[in-house]
Amino acid sequence: MSNVLVISTSLRARSNSDLLAERLVAGAKEAGHQVEKISLKGRNIGFCRGCLACQKTQKCVLNDDAVVIAEKVRNADTLVFITPIYYYEMSGQMKTLLDRMNPLYTTDYKFRKVYMVSVAAEDEAFVPEKAVSGLQGWVDCFEKAELAGSLFGGGIGGAGEAAGKTEEQQEAYEFGMSLR
Questions:
Q1: pLDDT tens for each residue of 152-172
Q2: Helices in the chain by DSSP H: which ranges?
Q3: How far is residue 84 from each of residues 43, 46, 106, 163, measured CA to CA in Å?
Q4: What's the whole-number average pLDDT of the chain?
Q5: Domains of the chain from N-terminus onward
C-alpha cells in the first residue's frame, strides 16, 4: 500500500474540511495505507519570494514550516490536499503552500498520485472547478505525478456543519478507501 500524506489547509476552528479529512484518513487506513495528516493551523508559512535559489539547492531560502512540510510531500507516495473553497478557488494558504513546494521540482520526489477534497457552502457542480484547475496546474509541473481524483462536499458552510452530514462523511471515507 501507499504512504499517504493528507494536508488539511483550513485555518478555521471546527473546520468542515478537517471533519471530512478525518473520515478520509479513516477510510485510507482501513484500505491498508500508512497515513499522516497535517494541518496548516498554527503553521508559519511565508510567501515564496520567487528567487529560484531552490532550483539549484533544492532548499528554500526561507526557514519556516513549509520546509518541513515540503520534505513530507517529497517522501509521500500519495498526496491529498483538503481545502475550503473561498470565492470559487482553493484557500489562499493552500496556494501559498503549493508555491513553496518549488524546491521539490528538481528533486527525486516520490509522489505519483495527487487528490483534492474541497468543501463549500455553495453546492453547484461548478463550484470546485477553479480550485481543481489550480491544483492541476501545480501537478502539471511534476511530470511523474497525476491529479488522480477529487471530491467535492457542497452545501456545507457553518463551522462544524459537516458533523451532521452523514452522506458527505461516508463519501469522504469511501474516497479514502479508493486512494491508490
A1: 999 999 999 999 999 999 999
A2: 16-30, 54-57, 65-75, 92-100, 129-140, 166-177
A3: 17, 20, 29, 15
A4: 96
A5: 3-177 (3.40.50.360)
